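Standup notes, structure subgroup. Blocker cleared on the iron/sulfur cluster input:
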Amino acid sequence: MSKLTTGSFSIEDLESVQITINNIVGAAKEAVKPTKEAAEVTGPMGPTPFPSIATLRDWSFTLFDRYEPVYTPMCDQCCYCTFGPCNLEGNKRGACGLDMKGQAAREFFLRCLTGCACHSAHGRHLLNHLIDLFGEDMPINMGASNVIAPNIQLVTGLQPKTLGDLKPVMEYVEEEVGQLLATVHAGQEAAAIDYDNKAMLAGVLDHVGMEVSDIAQVTALGFPKSDPEAPLVETGMGTIDASKPVIIAIGHNVAGVTYIMDYMEGNGLTDKMEIGGLCCTAFDMTRYKREDRKAPYAKIVGTISKELKIVRSGIPDVIVLDEQCVRADLVEEGQKLKIPIIASNEKIMYGLPDRTNDDVDAIVEDLVSGKIPGCVMLDLEKLGELVPKVALKMAPIREAEGLSAIPTDEEMKALVSKCAECGECALACPEELEIPAAIAVAKGGDYSALEELHDYCVGCRRCEQVCNKEIPVLSLIEKAAQKAIAEEKGLVRAGRGQVSDPEIRAEGLNLVMGTTPGVIAIIGCSNFPAGTKDVYNIAEEFLNRNYIVAVSGCSAMDIGMYKDADGKTLYERFPGRFERGNIFNTGSCVSNAHISATCHKVAAIFASRNLSGNLAEIADYSLNRIGAVGLAWGAYSQKAAAIGTGCNMYGIPAVLGPHSGKYRRALIAKTYDDSKWKLYDSRNGSEMAIPPSPEFLITTAETWQEACVMLAKNCIRVSDNNMGRSIKLTHWMELSEKYLGVLPEDLYKFVRNEADLPLAKREMLLKMLESEHGWEIDWKKKKIISGPSIKFDVSAQPTNLKRLCKEA
Amino acid sequence: MVDTTKNTKLFTTYGVKTSKTVTTEVASKLISKAKRPLFVVGTGVLNPELLDRVVKIAKAKNIPIAATGSSMIGFVDKGVNAKYINLHALGFYLTDPNWPGFDGNGNYDTIILLGHKKYYINQVLSATKNFSDVRAISIDKSYIQNATMSFGNLSKADHIAALDEVIDLL
Ligand code: SF4
Ligand code: SF4
Ligand code: SF4
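Run returned:
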């Protein structure tokens, strides 16, 4: 083993001497020990390569000291073990001794861990698959960068060069996921705050797992590589040409779909049939072999909220699934409309017969005849042939039968008149939509109120399950919205992958000085409080203000659904670089790793901080100097919890939508407690007072308007220079006036001297500071004489870490 | 009088403890008697029918308003003492005995709730319900399980009528 200390080695050679996986991880860990030899190979090594639960606990606790865990339990009972169920209401302890806070923290942690497991298991599947195809020695290619795996390097200290080098990274993540999962058992951890630390580690591992996934696919599947001009992709329910046979792919793991696309290309089928996707598989289909910027033929239908809607429309002739964010009722719903369901990944098998070892034509026969409603097909080569063949055969049959769940005009009339307006559906609707009132209007033949519900409705069919009159409420809404749906055609830029090193070099200074007012990263799912337009509104607001807007996944799709008066989407109006006034889409869910990595890269490339195994220092840098805030406005998934929590550990705050209080744990600071708003100046270890921003690491907002104000405020950083601070204050004040009708009450806390105040409003603000806060103003010179509680010192080196201070 | 106590139907539950329903009479008595009341309103109060009534209730007993979400825009120039605060942060601060409140005089003993998304306010109230002694009185249209006391589920018309009764009784 001692020979394996370079961090890059061939697994095949190891297999031939039968070394177990643990040993390889051991070797990889050895490789990053801060020894002299290793330093020559990997550069200096930070203090925490391959962290386990205790390694980064000091850093989590440093964060929790200011950003206190805020628990909002979903239920006051715990029913986890057979001692229970226990009533923990009022922070009582259960039979095992765990209190309500501990239980809420455990639940939140489990969400993060599940999300992390999802992304990492996805990464593992892709990695094994791509190594099988292309070999371990395939060099990683992420575009014009030297720092190609910032999350991996930051967390493990490894700097992978080949696909094979990603294996020890995966093995490390898997080991930690096992250790973490063990702590969920009853009678393991006791302290809420320690579950919170574990959640933070799970979040960090999530970013590592995501990075492995995307590095592997960007490298091996011909995805755009740090390309700001990646092609535009058609998106929306209205883009699918239903007159052709239609394949719909749902999920997150593109491995299987690449075979379907290869088969279509090999058989001249790309213009004879449609292939569209939902959720992140859709994104990755449109990145597949598109590094040449050719417009993709694959289309994006939309998010998980559209899954039932597209099925009910009857448009798909076959549905192929892989993993994550796939509805559990697709077989039942598909069967009603003779849409065969093909499961292509072991993670979702749906109780369907496994036909992996059977002849493709025999399976086609059984599916087309309806003998089976669907099947499992794990041989991806066969999958590639099976799915198009089924679509081609099913299309004429389904067309002849006119299969759709959308009621005819006559049926619609009869259905709305059946409604007793009992209100059960409204009580069940997670979006609290006023369904009975809309149906009441529809009774008079006016479907506009029902149509309006379409964009707010997340397609969950809870309404239908409680209706005593068996009214298919969702189908009524979709019927009413047929015209709107046909017009749902947008454009989104295909995922570009990472931000490149040269882009970081060009933008780093602006970002740290604040003259680029911030990075707003709009990510996550579609459980929006008020329809899909929220994320578009927010993105447009910040693009017009010259922020950098980063997007990914389902939010990126929904942002592309709206156009300006000239018919242009935001992706056509604003370029795709990492630069102020740009919108860049990193790609699918796993491409979120590139957003956090952008912060690591600023610290490493712009500020020359050492990245390897150096998480706390880099996170400390981001928290104090990079005005980046995440927005997961429609976060529904456990993956979103993991992504956000990983960002938090990296010093990046996040705002979530109102549904996300259900994650049960936020991290919010007491803005009124001055003792929490102090840092060290690393030049001499002295204490410095700082403004209260970010004022949370993870929290929720009620409306997109409120979120805009919060995002602008929480881009303020202690490192802003005067110009940067005045730009940031301008946007915050303007947004607060625009959406809340007032100037922010606590503006004064962010002012160090008169130069921080925007010129246009300086006089008015000085007056306000004088009259409301008693600040002393020299009116001749228009200067502040006394008042501010924070000082301006552009060369201060703010840090939370005493060990980084000179004197320490 | 509108019966604000009869319909407490839920689709899902937050567990064992559920809020007591209140009549408009009891609600107004509790509001009047509170030592440190805070009127916590959500963006739903921008509905003009509600906004008008929020202002009346606040003025009747000089109650400060915590304008959460983006409701603040409704209170500009209304002659009430309203301040913006994020609802989730407020939920946390209410559990801290050392929170100086909006006026520096300390935390609140009673919060009155109106204009919220049901799922959001219930979640935020799960913090005050489990980790504080603050009394939460919901006078919203829907039954709020995690409040201390709440109106039951009401029709729009009944809800408005109930609010008017509260205003009369204050
Ligand atoms: S894990 Fe503890 S609190 Fe939960 S049911 Fe078991 S004994 Fe009760
Ligand atoms: S549950 Fe059914 S009958 Fe009752 S209001 Fe809703 S659609 Fe009408
Ligand atoms: S399908 Fe739509 S309308 Fe029905 S309960 Fe779900 S979100 Fe509400």
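Discussed briefly. The mean pLDDT of chain A is 94.
Next: hand off to the docking folks.
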